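Record now logged underneath.
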Amino acid sequence: MRKITLLKQAGERFFQAGIEDAASEARLLLCWASNCTRIELMQRDDIPDDVVEKFQQAIQRRSAREPVAFITGEKGFWTLDLHVSPETLIPRGDSETLLEALLHHRPDRQKVQSILDLGTGTGCLLLAALKEYPQAWGLGVDVAPGAAALARRNARRNGLSERAAFIAGDWAAAIRGRFDVVLSNPPYIEHAEMVRLMPDVAEYEPHRALDGGNDGLTAYRILCRSLPHLLSEQGCAVLELGIGQAQAVTALAESAGLKVLECRKDLGGVERALVLAFS
């Protein structure tokens, strides 16, 4: 079948389904179905029948608003290639702001020895940090055993399994010890706002990783109470924030005896990464 015909049909279906960047997503999925790069796809005119069938199945799934990452089973983040599944949130570019903030406040790549990631999901934050700090080992914790298992797969995929461990647990309840760095992207969407999420998120990504309680701050209360017992003397924590949450989370942190080193904005101008340390 002709490539141009396939892409046109897919783009039209995606547009009708309310998907932004319909043409771009059609090309991305055809590359995935063809197991080729965009440049290689540009050089092709006809698409084999087996690839057409795989592509049409992907079109059907995406038209139902299933995220592209769940269709392909993977997602890029920072310098990593990660497996993804409905057990976890799909890693997002906004979360890379936490790594930018961490590298700014801990620029010596040899001094960080231990990293804790609470609510690890795919393991994206912990594994990306371990890539940057070659002397460090890390522990990722997630309430879902399936998420912890997926994070272990990602550690193996990125050559970090000897320096990363993942366990299922309730935040820091089972953790004893102190860490040079604590990272977390907790659930922070207000419960009443969950019904307003895009169907790509609301119908496919795990609500436990999104729903932050009535005011969106439930997880931050737990984290801020825990951080003084988790951070080493010169340690720092970097927490991801939802839109408009910087002031409220700052107040929670300061009431727990922590000080704010920075609140870093993401590329969209949202205050996204709160950096904390001992007062």
